[in-house]
Amino acid sequence: MKTSLKTTKLLVSACVAAFALAISFICLFISSNASNLIICIDPGHGGSDSGAVNTVDGVQYQENSSNLKISLAARKYLLEYAGVEVVMTRETLQEELSLAQRVAFATSKGAHVVVSIHNNSYSDPNVRGSLVCAAASTFRPELSKATRDLGDAILSSLNKIGLRNRGLLTTMANTSSYHAYYPDGSLQDYYGIVMRSIRSGVPGIVVECTFISSPDDVREYLSSDEKLDKLGRQIAEGIATYYNLSKETPYVAEYRHPIDARHLKFDEQYLRDLFYPLSGTTVSGENEAAFKNANGKTSVYLDYMGMAVQTKDYTSAVLRLKGERSGTKIKIYTGSDEVITREHEYSYEITLTDEYADYALDFTKVPTWKKSFNFFDFEVLNGGGFSISEVTFLASPPENAIAPCKNGSQETPSNTPSPTPTPSPTPTEEPETPTPTPTETPVPTETPDSGTPEAPSGTPAGPSATPSEAPTPASTPASENEGEGKEGGKGKDSTGLVIIIIALVLTVAVGVAVTIIVFKPVKKENNKEQ
Asked: How many other C-beta atoms lie within 10 A of the C-beta of residue 46?
């Protein structure tokens, strides 16, 4: 009897230990793979960029101020929901950010969605209502659809307080003078917040709450803090509807790694996912990103879209590279806001060894260089492959930095490996030159027949306005693994459920195993007693 009791205690202890182990495993998984829903609210314009301005009944209304108050109200109401965090690109009237900086901020915070809040302007003061700039591209279609569904939810919510629903504006980068493409060859979305967010792996939209150019919209929706607060509340309710948010049950989102574009070390899969292989190139590696193509046409993008590095703060980059074999020659194209295809004029040609070395690229020698850095485009010239383990941006180029060569030129730049880079200081928050307010571009349905409505204020409308501040090729494939279905909105991560089930099965298995082991000697003892 004593022996049986002792055996039972051992069995219970073993089961409790197994269960505790399973619970620890589950908690570890949840803590490392689950997150609150992180919403980035972006109040459009700011600083010297006032946005659209209109005087109604002797009072001047500036879009900058209205956008900020609506955004702060949206944050207040969103925080009433469980499992929601809100990050703001700016919280004062004085802050001024480029479109690149806004999405880069969201990327650095691990945001799941970007909502940029504006108020529209048009030459006809009778045009009223709300519209949303969303994506229509076929690149990452889940994210593209998410922008449209989220936009529709917000427009429906704004319509409840009487704002006319003017629909979605899904403009593509396809005009007589301007074309830009995603790395899969499809046309790029036109508006900067939308395009950059898609490329960084999350849905991003621009909400044009009202027409500040309409005296009626101003009087009814913008003329008091209470009215601006109501707009913020409706935007929050639209977001809550789309994500099925609850004030009691916490929302569980997939964790997104915050990324600091100034220094990338490719020892984690989520960073290797930033590469977009082309022409059948494969990506592998443990503490690096290694590229190879069986046909000898290795080609890959490293995309900075959505987390662009500001060229006023950084003038060079050091890349730690090695060839598949010594003598491997590669060509590196770099992109700023004016460089959108491989046909651009300048590139860097480097001969690699079969061991890692640092190569510094001098950006100051590229005449078209300005505003923000957006991608590396690697092309292997003599077959084989190459690997990259690290990229670091510097405030000033080292003495032996490689200068770009003009395509077709006989001049070949020096490719002496540079010394190991010293990370540059954190960039200042001084704003870039603001993108000028565009003039004319189509708006959605129900627009006046006479004249062409203006583009949403504060969003780019053409090459002269520096579309999206950096329409370039390349993309962040991180989202294809991390964000598409999840960021698309409504479902929770089923992976967690699978892990929990596995853990419980393991618990039961351990318990059964312990039972079998423990009870074998019990049976023998009973036989002796008989």
From this structure: 27
- Going through 385-529 in order, the beta strands assigned E by DSSP cover 386-394, 405-406
Per-residue pLDDT of 229-254, as tens digits, reads 999 999 999 999 999 999 999 999 99
Bridge partners, residue 208, by sequence: 118, 131
DSSP annotation string for 420-468? PPPPPPPPP-PPPPPPPPP-B----SS--SSS-PBPPTTS--SGGG-GG
In a domain, 211, yes or no: yes
Two structure tokens written together for 307: 């987390």
Q: Are residues 129 and 146 in the same domain?
A: yes
Q: What is the span of the domain harbouring residue 54?
A: 36-255+436-487
Number of Cα atoms under 13 Å in the Cβ half of residue 171: 29
Cα gap 56→121, rounded to integer Å: 14
Contact 415, 357 (CB under 8 A): no
Whether 338 and 272 map to the same domain: the answer is yes
Residues 301, 249 share a domain: no
8 lies in the same domain as 120:
no
Residues composing the chain: 530
Residue 420 domain flag: no
Q: What's the CATH code of the domain at 475?
A: 3.40.630.40
Residues 442 and 508 in one domain: no
Block residue for tokens 């970007």: 114
Q: Which two tokens stand for residue 381?
A: 């010239």
At position 278, the amino acid (one-letter code) is L
- Reported as a single tens digit per residue, the pLDDT across 90-125 is 999 999 999 989 999 999 999 999 999 999 999 999
- Indicate the pTM of the whole model: 0.75
Nearest to 255 by CA among 50, 146, 111, 358: 111
Say what the pLDDT of residue 230 is.
Answer: 98
